[in-house]
Amino acid sequence: MNLNFRFAIASDLHIALPETIWDHPSRFHLVEVSIPALEVVLEDLENSQLDFLLIPGDLTQHGEPSNHIWLANRLSKLPFPVYVIPGNHDVPSLLPNEQSIGFTDFPSYYQSFGYQNNTELYYTYQLLPGVQLISLNSNIFDGKGQQLGRIDEAQLTWLESVLASIDADLIIVMVHHNLLEHLPGQSHHSLGKRYMLENAPEVLKLLHQAGVKLVFTGHLHVQDVAYQNGLYDITTGSLVSYPHPYRILEVQTDSQGVTWLEMISKRVETLPEFPTLSQMSRDWIGDRSLPFTLKLLTETAVPLSDKKAYQIALELKYFWADVAGGDADFDFPNLPTKVREYFEKFGAIAPDGKLAFIDNHSTFLLEQKCV
């Protein structure tokens, strides 16, 4: 492995042209900023000497054709290649309807962004010599037409074959749903498991066998890095949710043959029409998080009266915003002991119980040659 390149991640853009915006009072997504925030990010990235940009899903608000068309046109003007995959919001319906494109229509909108003459919703592409991208589709529909987060059997077979045939120094995998847990007990919690692949263990087994080290995900709208047996699942927050983040990453091999991934994260903190965007969006989430926090409280197995749970939830108004920002250091001394211990686990706690601030700015070892 002898690699030197730079790339960026921007996730969950939720692009919404003004005439397509759903004005629902409880929505978490601040889609009004989707286009101006993206423009700020792209202006920065155009001056960052990138080799490519990855967007791991939820490109549009609700799969509207006009939003897909706008985004594909905007991305075509960039001086570097862009690679995308669908999120659940991009293909919310199996068949096209008056609001959204159909499930199988997605590749036709993004032929220049990974789907060259490809009718499947997954693909592989050589990004650079020695660097291979595998982009997976994690959206399927069951017999009742319900959308699920899963890699289907045909794609699993394809993935196994591709991993066996690739001759690359570094394989990068991109998929919308999370492969590893980014929240305590995420794969078992009713609120968290819908953001994970239902068959994550099957996919992870294939990736571990192939020595894959980097997976980039979205969907959860948080800044977090999870690690398991040499594999990093780096999930990136949404451009329409606090803290409106994106990442610039650089892979370098030094003179000793050691290959590193250096990651920095940036935020869109202000926009001309939203001069206090950062505080505004933090309040936006805080004002809408009460039902979510109450549900977390009711599943802590700590007996609480409805009144007490409500009081605690009010104290935790900014809890989810701080989780979304990554690298949180929680301290809730006034909460009941078991409740406090539960919520403090959502902070930047490493397996050894110590704080580890790796969610936004980090350097990860990818390869070290044996001497």
Description:
With 371 residues, this protein is of the alpha/beta class. It has 2 domains: 264 residues, Metallo-dependent phosphatases (Purple Acid Phosphatase, chain A, domain 2, 4-Layer Sandwich), CATH 3.60.21; 67 residues, no CATH class. The chain contains 10 helices and 14 strands. The two termini are 14 Å apart. It comes from Merismopedia glauca CCAP 1448/3.
Short key terms for the protein model shown above:
single chain; 371 residues; alpha/beta; Purple Acid Phosphatase, chain A, domain 2; 14 strands; hydrolase; Pesterase_cyn; hydrolase activity; iron
Amino- and carboxy-terminal Cα gap? 14 Å
- Could you say which overall geometry the principal axes of the C-alpha atoms support? globular
What name goes with the CATH superfamily of the largest domain? Metallo-dependent phosphatases
Q: Return the average pLDDT rounded to an integer.
A: 94
Order of adjacent strands in the largest pleated sheet: 3-2-1-12-13-14
CATH architecture title of the largest domain: 4-Layer Sandwich
Question: Which class do the helix and strand fractions yield?
Answer: alpha/beta
Backbone CA Rg: 20 Å
Task: Describe, in short, the structure shown.
By secondary structure, this protein is α/β, with parallel strands linked by helices. It folds into two domains: 4-267, 4-Layer Sandwich (Purple Acid Phosphatase, chain A, domain 2); 278-344, no CATH class.
